[in-house]
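User: I'm writing a tutorial on reading structure tokens. Could you give me a worked example: one chain, its sequence, then its tokens, then a sentence or two explaining what the tokens reveal?
Assistant: Sure. Here is the example chain.
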Amino acid sequence: MLMQPINSNNALSALHCLYVGGTGSGKTTAVKLLPTTKATDQILFWYPHEDYSGKFKGRTVRRYKSFTKFFKAAIAGRKTQSGFKIALTVPETRENFLRFCEIVKALGDGKYKKQLHVVCEEVPQVTESLGKEKGAYVWLLAVGRKFGIVVHSVGQRVVEMSKTTLSQSIYKWVGMQASIKTPCVWPKNAIFL
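And here are its predicted structure tokens:
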């Protein structure tokens, strides 16, 4: 049985973020560049495709391919009260994603000095419904705030995200949303970051 989050704190603000955009539109770049996270933050990454290799905001991303090693590294990182960047690379299945979310949940602490940021890439690939999401992921979105958890959900299309993800994400970054019927055309005065 996993540990449980501690010290519920209703005074914490809701800071969950959503990043959506078609392939190549800059979602991962937005996560890396926007001020929604800092180099000094404690961040866990769900990304089986290894886009967060090397550095994130100038800090080395440590990657683990086993849940046990990932969990031990995350616990050790939380004990330091310093910033860290730790990624889990396992097969992209719903079961693995929910197990990852359970680990994040277990590390929640509403009175802890640093909030725990969790970046979940390609969320529609590992969620089941456009309606209300179930399992540990919905717990992170709906209750995690009180335990110092900030969820950064990433996916390609708004319509593929669950209603829970959309409603619980206070901040939203929307990139290119094109289809054959509605191609994306950049205005002449568009500014690219």
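What the tokens reveal: The first strand starts at residue 17 and ends at 20. The chain has five helices and nine strands.
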